[in-house]
Design goal:
Rossmann fold; alpha/beta; four-stranded parallel β-sheet; elongated
């Protein structure tokens, strides 16, 4: 759920700029519809938009790719280029390649924040509309930034864990890929844990939001720590890797809190599985909102579009418990 005020502005803005984009015979700088229904710029060319996302190496990014494909299909009047990348260098090369192909806009979900920021700034300075989704740049170089409230993610999950532990216990912390998302989640969670002197973080490492890596990291943590009461995994894929390690080690009394709203985890929360007493939403469909935003702003003309869309849109995140899990369980979902 997008924060109410931002959501109202965003929806109204998208509606308004879509209407502008459908008008013909104007000289406002907005695109004109061709006889075939395709949206065109002033030069009469069809708009071209690049979508740059991480490779689908785990459930959440697979969901991102799925929703990106769905959103682009809803806008057949625009020429879309979707590229995924396994690491920053590959993503930078892809972005440079899309620039040479003459894209009018780019929707970017960064593999990592810091290395992608300079190329995003360069492309923005070259006049390309930049929509940044999820993993923020380290400088405000995007025209629009759409993200989940990751500070709330960290705070809400840590508050739940502290309450579930009655304010005392030994926990392990798994971080994700170096980026603004991970920094906000981990920093907010640790601030909460600081308020509970009885909670001790006995192990901390990065699982890179990867199930296999998280499993290996957790194996090492278990060898070094005979007692771990709970694991703050910060991601549902990593949570499943942690679970595999716990089972292999015969640890039956350790529970896990991941995040992302993966349907398999939500189902287990709904079924009151003691390993997963809760989860946190983090919808990969936010990429679709970024794609729709880019399409609408181009149709209106970039400068017009900026009048309707806020520069920063933050999506609310919810704590999933057995009481409300049915509202977040979508068995036919890709994620």
């Amino acid at each position: 759920m997008i924060r109410k005020k931002a959501f109202m502005y965003a929806v109204a803005g998208l509606a308004a700029i879509t209407m502008v984009g459908c008008q013909t015979g104007t000289d406002s700088g907005a695109g004109n519809a061709t006889s075939g229904g395709a949206t065109a710029g002033k030069a009469g060319k069809k708009f071209k938009v690049g979508v740059s996302i991480p490779a689908a190496d785990h459930g959440w990014t697979a969901g991102v790719k799925y929703w990106a494909e769905q959103a682009t299909k809803q806008n057949p009047d625009i020429e879309w280029i979707i590229q995924d990348a396994k690491e920053p260098g590959e993503q930078i090369s892809g972005l440079e390649n899309m620039q040479t192909q003459g894209v009018d806009a780019l929707v970017i979900l960064a593999t990592e924040s810091a290395p992608i920021t300079p190329i995003a700034e360069k492309l923005h300075n070259a006049g390309i509309l930049i929509i940044n989704v999820d993993r923020g740049f380290t400088k405000p170089v995007a025209d629009v930034f759409i993200e989940g409230d990751n500070k709330a993610f960290g705070r809400k999950s840590a508050e739940f864990m502290a309450k579930q532990l009655n304010g005392k216990g030994k926990i392990a912390v798994l971080e994700g890929i170096p980026c603004t998302v991970n920094t906000d989640r981990v920093t907010a969670a640790k601030e909460v844990f600081k308020g509970f002197p009885g909670i001790q973080i006995v192990a901390e490492d990065s699982g890179m939001w990867n199930r296999e890596k998280a499993e290996k990291i957790m194996q090492n943590m278990l060898v070094a720590n005979p007692q771990i009461d709970a694991v703050w995994a910060s991601d549902d894929d990593m949570a499943l890797g942690v679970e595999n390690a716990l089972k292999a080690a015969g640890r039956k009394n350790t529970w896990i809190l991941g995040g992302g709203g993966m349907k398999d985890i939500v189902k287990r929360v709904m079924d009151k599985d003691p390993i997963y007493p809760s989860d946190i939403t983090y919808p990969p469909s936010m990429i679709a909102f970024g794609i729709q935003t880019a399409a609408g702003m181009l149709r209106a003309g970039k400068d017009n579009g900026k009048k309707f869309i806020p520069r920063h849109v933050m999506i609310d995140l919810d704590l999933i418990t057995p009481d409300n899990a049915k509202d977040y369980y979508f068995p036919d979902s890709i994620y």
